[in-house]
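Below is one such protein, fold included:
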Amino acid sequence: MEHIAALLLVVGCSGNMAECRELPAPAPIYETFEECEAEKPISMRELEGEAPRVMATCVFVDPALVYDDAVLEWDITKDGKLTASLEPATSFAVAQNQHARQKNTFTE
């Protein structure tokens, strides 16, 4: 079984940052956080035509936690920075995540 240390999250946004969505990363999982960071600019360049603004971040995967049902929570801060974390899922978190995606709002 492969050990995953980081996930690459790539997000495409409208020019005014009012609407954002996840974009499929060419290689979304990495065995080290450093590998993810090294590949991040390459993935952003590959996806730059998918949206007016493309951002990416590497998300640390804690090997001590079991992620059978995990939620990737992300947000764009007021200063335009992409933040994200991988959290163990609860029924409430899963429902909230699905609701936010259906409304196309990303304040998870």
User: Anything to note?
Assistant: The two ends are 30 Å apart (CA to CA).
